[in-house]
Amino acid sequence: MNPSLVADGLVLLHALFIAFVALGGLLALRWPAVAYLHLPCLFWGIAIELGGFVCPLTPLEIQWRLAAGEGGYNGGFIDHYIVPLIYPPGLTRGTQILLGLALLTGNGLIYGYLRRKRSRRSSRRR
């Protein structure tokens, strides 16, 4: 097994997970059953952002990079891969908190809409 390929796969998995956390509520608008998978992922993402934790995928990726003879890096996945693409240099704690609150607010609006939609449907059936 090629350690560099495994590390790259973990980066891809990590990026897909982040996209699902951020946008999975939109999938739940079309397929409500997605909410059963999305909500735990969303709560995990919010906890990571608000708590300032490092996702377990990050040290695992670094471990595989080192096994491949590549250099590891300090900080987390977002610091290393996402921040350079989206944010000016350095991710501050305040920015992390804003990201967590944006996840909470945006998805709260989506799930609030879904809940109202479902309660209206159930009240029509009565």
UniProtKB/TrEMBL annotation:
Domain of life: Bacteria
InterPro entries: DUF2784 (IPR021218)
Transmembrane segments: 12-29, 41-60, 97-114
Record's keyword terms, sorted: Membrane, Transmembrane, Transmembrane helix
Protein name (record): Uncharacterized protein DUF2784
